[in-house]
Amino acid sequence: MGAAGVALAAAASHGGDTLFLGSASTMCLAHAPVLLGLYLGHKAFRTATPAALVLGLGTIIFAGDLVARHYLGARLFPLAAPLGGMGMMLGWLLVAAGAFFGRREI
């Protein structure tokens, strides 16, 4: 996810569309460290696995739709970006919900 974010930033800065590619890059780069942190803490953090799955999938769908719009001139599927955005929001809510559940015993 981090590598994709850097690649998209490079594509946007070298003559690409900063609206689509820049936004896709931002989302990938913002969520890559969170996914790494969720992976590293998944044994102690109850909601880490579902949060990472939902957050990662939402980011892939959202960024993928923006990249498809830039390079293909069409969406991945109808309402892909809003669905991906909702997935990212749900993923963050799952991260926040982890604060309300007890820690796992390691």
Task: Walk me through the structure.
The chain has 106 residues and is an all-alpha fold. The protein has one domain. 73% of the residues lie in helices and 0% in strands. It has helices at 2-13, 18-40, 48-71, 80-97. The longest helix has 24 residues, at 48-71. It is elongated. The mean pLDDT is 92.
List keywords for this structure.
single chain; 106 residues; mainly alpha; 73% helix; elongated
Q: What is the element layout, followed by pairings?
A:
Layout: H1 2-13, H2 18-40, H3 48-71, H4 80-97
Summarize the structure.
The chain is an all-alpha fold and 106 residues long. It is built from 4 helices and no strands. The chain has one domain (2-97).
Stretches where pLDDT is under 50 for at least 5 consecutive residues are none
Fraction of residues in helices? over 70%
Distance between the termini: 28 Å
Instruction: Supply the number of helical segments.
Output: 4
- What is the gyration radius calculated from CA atoms? 15 Å
How many domains? The number is: 1
Instruction: Determine the structural class based on helices, strands and strand pairing.
Output: mainly alpha
**Number of strand elements:** 0
Q: Which term fits the overall shape? A: elongated
The multimeric state of the shown protein is single chain
- SSE pattern: HHHH
Main beta-sheet annotation: none
Mean pLDDT: 92
User: Beta-strand level of the residues, as a percent range?
Assistant: under 5%
